[in-house]
Design goal:
The protein has 143 residues and is α+β, with helices and mostly antiparallel strands. It is built from three helices and six strands, in the order ααββαββββ. The model has no long low-confidence stretch (mean pLDDT 91).
């Protein structure tokens, strides 16, 4: 099997897993790209995702960072994966048109990957970092 075939299989698996997540569908997140192990997940900002001050709720930002980390880890591990640990640091309140999380694996072994994710708020052409996350992702094992 060629590297291109493996990449295509991982792309199909990742998109199928993403589409199968009920919470992801509820929020309306989109898996934008998985190019060379770099993952981008986007979420349009809507009023129901905001907290009382009009900023995007921290739980939504954490979800986006975690999901991007998990998909980057899954690519690095070559299959389905789950997050074992994720730490999110918020840098500023999020507002704008949408959020985008960009993630990549920074280290991977056979069974785990350490991944980094940066979440940006986007308003027009302006991107601002709103959170940075690091997570440990492990290969998923079904019972």
């Amino acid at each position: 099997m060629s590297q291109k075939d493996i990449d295509n299989d991982l792309d199909r698996l990742a998109r199928a897993v993403f589409a199968a997540q009920p919470f992801t569908r509820l929020l309306g997140a989109e898996l934008i790209s998985m190019d060379g192990g770099n993952v981008e997940v986007r979420l349009r900002i809507r009023p129901e995702l905001q907290q009382q001050h009009g900023f995007v709720h921290g739980g939504v930002i954490s979800y986006l960072a975690d999901n991007a980390v998990t998909f980057a880890g899954g690519i690095a591990l070559g299959g389905d994966a789950v997050t074992a640990h994720c730490t999110v640091n918020f840098s500023r309140p999020a507002s704008g048109e949408y959020l985008i999380a960009r993630a990549r694996a920074v280290s991977a072994t056979r069974n785990q990957a350490i991944c980094h994710s940066t979440v940006y708020s986007v308003d027009g052409e302006t991107e601002r970092i709103v959170a940075v996350a690091q997570g440990t992702v492990v290969a998923a094992h079904t019972p």
